[in-house]
Structure formats: structure tokens, C-alpha cells
Amino acid sequence: MTTVVLIIALTISIALNVLGVWYVRKLLQSFILNSENVENLLFDIEKYEEHLTSVHSLETYYGDETLGGLMRHTEALANNLNQYREVYAIVEEEEEVDYYENETKS
Questions:
Q1: How far apart are CA 37 and CA 52, in angstroms?
Q2: Would the pTM count as exceeding 0.70?
Q3: Scanning 4, 29, 59, 93, which has its CA 20 to 30 A from the CA of 83?
């Protein structure tokens, strides 16, 4: 009787461990996808900010308050989005650390 209970408990434990590994794997895939999406979004915002700055510096639009307000808004948006970069950049920081560790060993 005890053997049957142990076998059932072992089977349930193995099933829960397999389910847990599958779930963690899905979470990590989702995290990496979100990290890449945030990086792409930040890249697009930076390019937009550069373009807006170049247009604002043109002689025709220099000092235009509407473009100045747009530039301030874009800068604030970029700063807010950079906070997300810090949250999602954990994966990239680890990769960079590994790269530098390999360089020092060579």
C-alpha cells in the first residue's frame, strides 16, 4: 500500500515539475520577445527624436514653438521609455558581461 502511494506521489511530482519547466520556458520566451520589442520601440523613438531635432534646426523652422513643444514631449517620452529599457535589458547586460569575461581570458 505504501509503495502505491509513493508511486502516485512520484508521478504527480514528476508531472508538476514538467508542467513547471514548460511554464517557466514560456515565460522566458515571452520576456525575451517583450525585451526585443521594447528595444525596437526605443530605437524608433530615438530615430524620430533625431529627425525632429534636424527639422527643428532648419532655418525655416528654427525657434518654432510647436516643434519645440514636440521636441520636449518626444524627449520626455524617450526618457520614460528608457526606464523600460533598464527593466528589460537584464538579458543583454548578462550577454555583455560574458563577452567581457571572454575578452579578459584571451
A1: 22
A2: no
A3: 29
Joined together, the cell numbers standing for residue 46 give: 530615438
The CA-based angle 41-37-30, given to 5 degrees, is: 160
Amino acid at 79: N
Angle 28-33-35 from CA coordinates, rounded to 5°: 95
| Element containing residue 106 per DSSP (H, E) | none
Residue-wise pLDDT for 58-99, tens only, equals 777 777 788 788 888 888 888 888 787 777 766 555 555 454
Q: Is the dihedral of CA 40, 46, 49, 54 positive or negative?
A: negative
CA distance 86 to 40: 14
Report the amino acid identity of residue 74.
Answer: T
Residue with cell 525585451: 35
